[in-house]
Fold MMPL family transporter.
Amino acid sequence: MRAVTDRITRKWWAVAIVILALAGAMGVVSAVGEAQRTASSTDALPIGSDSAAALELRDRLPEAEGSTAVVVFSKASGTLSPDDMTAIEARVSQLPAAGGAPVQRSEDGTAALAVVPVDATDATATADLVGDVRTTVKADLPEGVTAQVTGPAAVQADLAAVFAGANTRLLIATASVVALLLVLTYRSPILWIFPLLVVGVADRLAAVLATHTLSAFSVVWDESTIGILSVLVFGAGTDYALLLISRYRDELRSHSDRREAMSLALRRTSEAVLSSAVTVVIGLLTLLLSLFPATRGLGLACAVGVVVAAAFVLLVLPAALVIFDRWIFWPKVPREGEAALVDGQSLWRRVGDRVAAHPRRIISVTLVVLAVMAAGIAAIDTGLKPSDQFLKKPEAIAASERLAQSFPAGSADPAVIVTTADPDAVTAAAKGVAGIAGARTVKQAEGVAEVDAVIEAAPGSDEATQTVRDLRAALTDLPESHVAGTEAVALDQAEASSRDRLVIFPLVLALVLLALGLLLRSVVAPLVLVATVVATFLASVGASWWIFTKVFGFAALDDSAPLFAFVFLVALGVDYNIFLVTRAREESRLNGSRQGMLRGLAATGGVITSAGILLAAVFAVLGVLPLVVLAQIGVIICVGVLLDTLVVRTLLVPAIAVVLGDRFWWPRRPHPSPSARLDQQREMVGAQPSTNP
């Protein structure tokens, strides 16, 4: 390891590494670019679900790739007059795709609707066609008459609008937050440029490598994948950079040669960074077991991103820093002979001394606080209604709500039955289901028929979900009859999300526990660390629920939010514990378990706190997108990371370690042999290790 770090920090090697890495990465980004994806109608559907089977069977129908939009005409006061209806029909007739579809007037006379086919194969084309429909139907309407467009195509178009330029906005917001926090952390007008530049290049390269990896393995990804990938690369990459630079600054206080200082800092940091990266990658790869294709893609893409981020921080950043002298830390330039963090009376050393004075009290109070925060879990409602999925209500949702006032609630988005059975028998069976307002065959070809069944209950309600269950039960005796549509998809997604949590949660914990056991070669320490991370997750979810309901007014927690929050929090939360305990283990070799933990806290307290605040802020940036699920994931992770950084890693873990003493590292010996201690002392002053047995 010493030979590798010495070479990275050697003058001409450092210059070559920086030039080749940065130029090569940008060359790949500009020449290759991100892979293009081909969207499928089943990308967002659970694998093996009834709704996925329906859409796969529907592909056998001609022009099955299209969707529908529903134009809702309404009058604020009074009913639609004959002249109003004539003008409305004229508007609809100008839509090339309408095909002479009749305009239906509601029984109360205040609204009318027209169903318009939207023949498009992807989200972009759908958005363009829906935009044309909206422009046409809203032109030259009679006074008091308004037109809005809803239906599956309009919802897809509004969702596409959410992600239009989203990755760019997320990248700019994330980079800005990271830059600001780096300036505040280092209080230097120069130093922050190096980690931001290195991590920024790593992010762009990660996007290219991740998408091509997904394409090579035929793994699906969606519009949010690259945005979340950027957030993770910037968050994790900057955390690793903070750890490296903090150790480099500390070593400069005891070494006159900056290259020797960086070589030692890199050796001491690489184990923690590599262990952290491996743990995060293992956690992310468990998402490959999800039933959701896009979730699998997110897990694999983010795993690639973490590998790229760690590689750039361990190879490119050290080389970039040692090219320049100590002045890059200006105005707080570390000088040889200054006291190291572990030997000073810093804030974190004083915190450690307080923890050591009353460890059992600290443990009790901290656990009570976490338990109180976690109590909010008992009140959580899951499953967002379609109308609650956007932070700002789009036209498609507003139109759907207006339509439900005058027509059966499911008119804009009926349940879609796709079958190879007799369509008349399917229609009759559907009409016999309580909660179905009507059913009709809308398409039939090549032995496959599509039947639309209008659900009376409001979209997203428990009654609508039960109607879907009853409808599927009524069709069990009819061969190859599957139910899709928004309500059916929501039901399948809720059930698949529950299954994913049951499978992935324990697997993540088991794999992270195994990784920590191999890293620390201990049994007790990994159990303690994993237990504290789980406590942090439960507390963050409980506390976030009160934030959602009392501050943001969210009605429910999205079904997918707990899974993503758990995987990211467990993987990233263990990161900070790894940073702490690896340094504590190093210090324990010379100072014993108790003092080793306190010195480890003193040495890493500042950098881990800075890293945690930065990571929390980066995930909070997900709120720039007007999707409730991303805002919820961002808030839970933000709260969890702050809890882990400021409470669990600062108070709870050190207190437990102080109480357990040497047992914390069991069965590993906390103290090395005399020759190992001598080797460490020689390495600290740059001498060659001993060859004594």
